[in-house]
Amino acid sequence: MQIMSVDTVTRSIAETAAYYETVLRLPVRKEIGAVEVTVGRSVVRFREDADAEGDQHYAFLIDDARFDAARAFLAAGPGLLSDGDRTEFEAQPAWNARSLYFPGPDRSVLEVIARRALPQPLSAGNTSGAKASSPHVPGAQHLPFGPGDLLSVSEVGVAVPDVTGTADRLTDAGIGRYPDGSATFSPAGHIDGMLILVSPGRTWFPTSERVVAEPPVTVVAQAGPASPGVRAGRYELAPGRVLVVRP
User: Fold this and answer.
1) Which of 31, 132, 189, 247 lies deepest, with the highest CB count within 10 Å?
2) Whole-number Å distance between alpha carbons of 171 and 181
């Protein structure tokens, strides 16, 4: 389930545009009252809503061969979020992935995630500026990290009032759920893209103060080779929160 686009809100277009353009150096297109950010093969569009409540979460896919370079880049830039003395997080065995978290604009919690189960080398396809990196390329970790290393949106946090019920409905549509979920947290999707279904009022890991709320969001995804059996359709996750899956 490859995430192609996300449409949501931000309290500050100016802050959001400046962050993605100057801190992550991603392509940014500004409109009146909105900004569009290209992340590899994905596009995230933010509309301004100064009264929006709560904080958001997105994860961006990177090649595992670029993980150390990403850590150095983020540590020197926006900084890394920690849980105690940990700044690198190995996921549960079913995920076969590792992550770094960092603060984003408008109090968002951002993440880069390396999914080892995806075919190597990874690539953002035909997206301008994208590149592939492979563990088999000597010295890949020593190359400077750049915007082309962010290959796609890998995860989108979505608040829903009934996490278990929503995950069940998506499972019925062929959108798998990962183990180790709970009544307030359930990843739904596949290694090529997923939704992080969470209850409003939780905090976004690894913080204790950035809180899940219920902003409107529309996620458009495409059934990919890593997600066979996904049924195309429009899925209402909660009021104002929609997943559209294209064949």
Assistant:
1) 189
2) 13
